[in-house]
Amino acid sequence: MSNLLLMQVTNRELSPTATARREQIMAAAIEVIAAKGYGQASFGRIAEHAGLSSTRLISYHFKGKSELIQAVVDSALSDAAAFMRPRMEAATTRRDTLASYIESNLEFMRDHPAHIRALVEIIAGTRGGAETTVSDTWSTVAEEFFRAGQAEGAFRAFDPHVMAVSLRAAIDAVAIMPDVDHTAYARELVALFDHATRKDQS
Predict the structure, then answer these.
(1) DSSP character at residue 155
(2) I want to staple 154 with a disulfide (CB 3.0 to 4.6 A). Which of 35, 149, 164, 183 is the partner?
(3) 113 to each of 35, 38, 140, how far by Cα in Å?
(4) Are 39 and 105 in contact (CB under 8 A)?
(5) What is d(CA 86, CA 71) in angstroms, rounded to the nearest whole number?
(6) End-to-end alpha carbon distance in the chain
(7) pLDDT tens-digit series, residues 4-38
(8) CA 13 to chain centre
(9) What confidence tens digit (pLDDT) does each residue in 134-157 have?
(10) Closest listed residue to residue 42, CA positions, set 68, 23, 73
């Protein structure tokens, strides 16, 4: 299940200083996009929020807004993966791993609202465009997880693709629920998907 957390990373060799500057810019971009919206996230606003003297410092590290936005998406997903990984690796059964996946995903969404608002704004702002890609790795590997669980006898017979898409849709819907109780929502989802997938229904 840990493969679920494999996210896109840059292969570029960066110095510690350059890495720190890029992270500073991406953190500022996340907060500006979350607060102002994708369309209002200019280099000027991001530079001001990051405390940079010039937008040229952003242009030095990113070729343009599209590259910066892609880096923000990858960074947000990577942060979520890093948050969830130890919680999921502590689970010992397929059913427990599924529960941990749901609970840790909802916990991250509760504790990192700027990340979630930024992703929602980016997806809405780039809809119809091809310049930004949001990885579908999570759904793909969730499908593989369900398929492997069926082979081991932990899950009943069902369509793994439909179950994976349904699981992601149920989790992702929380991103546009401003007043949701994440803990209660996670508890309901764990019960729902455990009941929907487990082999022993007694």
Answers:
(1) B
(2) 149
(3) 11, 15, 25
(4) no
(5) 24
(6) 26
(7) 333 333 445 778 888 899 999 999 999 999 999 98
(8) 24
(9) 666 778 888 999 999 999 999 999
(10) 68
Distance CA(52)–CA(99), nearest Å, equals 42
Nearest Cα to Cα of residue 96 among 17, 202, 21, 194 = 194
For residue 29, which of 48, 57, 8 has the smallest C-alpha distance? 48
* E-only strand ranges, 12-94: none
Closest C-alpha to 22, from 55, 56, 60: 60
Angstrom distance (rounded) from CA 79 to CA 83 = 6
Nearest C-alpha neighbor of 125 from the set 4, 43, 37 = 37
Using CA atoms, how far apart are residues 68 and 64, in angstroms rounded to an integer?
Answer: 6
The model's pLDDT over 92-151, given as tens digits with 9 standing for 90+, comes to 999 999 999 999 999 999 999 999 889 888 888 776 555 666 666 778 888 999 999 999
Residue 201: partners with Cβ closer than 8 Å, 6 or more residues away: 156, 195
